[in-house]
């Protein structure tokens, strides 16, 4: 299959990323059937499986860098993409080519009738990724959960190492007991007696029994077995001391912004050492992080004015973005914000955490998604918080408006959704924004 035909085939299947509403009848049966007729490619290599409300994409990218620095061949599966669908499947850090992606999706299409199932968009891509990793003979696959864990399509793998970054309120109605319910779903990526180590970033003591009951051979707890021993702001990122059960990696330069990224780095280093069964050499850790980039995560794309994009889309992510803004950035001018949100989020909570009341201007836009929250709702929430608000529906036009108002001393922050950040990131390369 050529990529154009493959994408047409994909679009003929239900894309839950683009639809709102509750999913009923959760089961892995359909996905298990699909990979079975492909020869169960996900069993051809060990897997590090990563879940969590926030940070799992960053951790997956860091883990992949660390493993590649060890000389291993590494497949990485992540979602959603920022600009091109190819980003979701990577081999040693390089996105899959158009031809290889078309072939991988085509291989899934060829067995759909044999499997006697109608897979979803995400299930097709997941199966294609697993098959491609087997075909190129990766030494290890780093697999990011799409949503929650237990019934996510990726959970047909049996992880050697499982990672849970944290438990937040995404994908829940917030009813009493939601933290316990979300923890149970995320703990579902552990295969009892098979998963050697669960690396747990969530520190709520009330949730620890749930994760312990998942049945990993060992559970490593953040701030007990591993963690950040020290963390300082550095030019372009953080300088952190990262502690694991077997090592202390001192003054590791992590070239991404935010104290939360130092925590993510500790999770990644612990996960790789759990997988290897030994400490990593300091120079290998330093090499792995030296060239680390995490597109769309507090990524600085311009200066004079400073332009930052961040995929913060929930209250926890918004709070991290605001903290990073305050701690990592020297701001002689004002902050202007461009924000679009998806349904399922309380706009007051997200905007309050982001600090829109203190912004010089908030430009509200519409994410490029059927799940977009109407700009009128977002603008009304912002006005209730005391923000100065304009509405410019198209995200790129919204950024142009903010840039037109900004002085060279100001900072423009684009946030709220990957479906805002992705199109803006592509467009900024075409704008006259100095890096």
TrEMBL record:
Q: Name one GO cellular component term.
A: cytoplasm
Q: Where is the Mur ligase central domain?
A: 50-272
Q: What is the protein's species of origin? A: Iamia majanohamensis
Q: Does the keyword Lyase apply?
A: no
Q: What is its EC number?
A: 6.3.2.17
MF terms (GO), sorted A to Z? ATP binding; dihydrofolate synthase activity; metal ion binding; tetrahydrofolylpolyglutamate synthase activity
Organism's domain of life? Bacteria
The record's section on SUPFAM superfamilies has: MurD-like peptide ligases, catalytic domain, MurD-like peptide ligases, peptide-binding domain
Domain spans labelled Mur ligase C-terminal: 296-417
| Protein known as | tetrahydrofolate synthase
- Per its UniProt entry, what is the enzyme's top EC class, as one word? ligase
List the keywords (alphabetical).
ATP-binding, Ligase, Magnesium, Metal-binding, Nucleotide-binding
Reactions accelerated catalytically: (6S)-5,6,7,8-tetrahydrofolyl-(gamma-L-Glu)(n) + L-glutamate + ATP = (6S)-5,6,7,8-tetrahydrofolyl-(gamma-L-Glu)(n+1) + ADP + phosphate + H(+)
Q: State the similarity comment.
A: Belongs to the folylpolyglutamate synthase family.
**InterPro entries given in the database record:** Folylpolyglutamate_synth, Folylpolyglutamate_synth_CS, Mur-like_cat_sf, Mur_ligase_C, Mur_ligase_C_dom_sf, Mur_ligase_cen
């Amino acid at each position: 299959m050529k990529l154009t035909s493959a994408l047409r085939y994909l679009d003929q299947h239900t894309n839950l990323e683009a639809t709102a509403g509750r999913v009923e009848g959760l089961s892995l049966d359909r996905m298990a059937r699909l990979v079975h007729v492909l020869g169960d490619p996900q069993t051809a290599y060990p897997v590090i499986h990563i879940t969590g409300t926030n940070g799992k994409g960053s951790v997956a990218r860091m883990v992949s860098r660390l493993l590649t620095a060890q000389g291993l061949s590494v497949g990485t599966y992540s979602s959603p993409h920022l600009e091109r669908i190819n980003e979701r499947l990577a081999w040693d850090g390089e996105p899959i080519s158009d031809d290889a992606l078309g072939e991988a999706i085509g291989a899934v299409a060829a067995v759909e009738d044999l499997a006697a199932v109608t897979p979803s968009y995400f299930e097709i891509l997941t199966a294609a990724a697993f098959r491609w990793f087997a075909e190129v003979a990766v030494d290890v696959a780093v697999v990011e959960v799409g949503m929650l864990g237990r019934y996510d399509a990726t959970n047909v793998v049996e992880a050697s190492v499982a990672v849970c970054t944290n438990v937040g309120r995404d994908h829940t109605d917030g009813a009493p007991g939601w933290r316990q319910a979300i923890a149970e779903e995320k703990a579902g990526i552990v295969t009892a007696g098979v998963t050697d180590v669960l690396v747990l970033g969530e520190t709520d003591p009330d949730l620890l029994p749930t994760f312990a009951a998942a049945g990993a051979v060992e559970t490593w707890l953040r701030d007990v077995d591993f963690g950040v021993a020290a963390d300082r702001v550095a030019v372009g990122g953080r300088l952190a001391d990262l502690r694991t059960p077997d090592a202390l990696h001192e003054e590791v330069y992590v070239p991404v912004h935010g104290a939360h990224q130092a925590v993510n780095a500790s999770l990644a280093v612990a996960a790789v050492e759990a997988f290897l069964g030994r400490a990593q050499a300091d120079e290998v850790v330093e090499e792995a992080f030296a060239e680390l980039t995490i597109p769309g995560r507090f990524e600085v794309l311009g200066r004079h004015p400073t332009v930052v994009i961040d995929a913060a889309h929930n209250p926890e992510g918004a709070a991290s973005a605001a903290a990073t803004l305050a701690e990592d950035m020297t701001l002689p001018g004002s902050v202007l914000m461009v924000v679009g949100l998806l349904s399922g989020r309380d706009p007051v909570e997200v905007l309050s955490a982001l600090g829109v009341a203190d912004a010089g201007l908030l430009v509200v836009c519409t994410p490029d998604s059927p799940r977009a929250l109407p700009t009128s709702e977002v603008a009304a929430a912002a006005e209730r918080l005391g923000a100065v608000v304009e509405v410019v529906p198209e995200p790129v036009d919204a950024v142009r408006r903010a840039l037109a108002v900004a002085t060279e001393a100001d900072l423009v922050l684009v946030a709220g959704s990957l479906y805002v950040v992705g199109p803006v990131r592509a467009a900024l390369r075409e704008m006259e924004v100095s890096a």
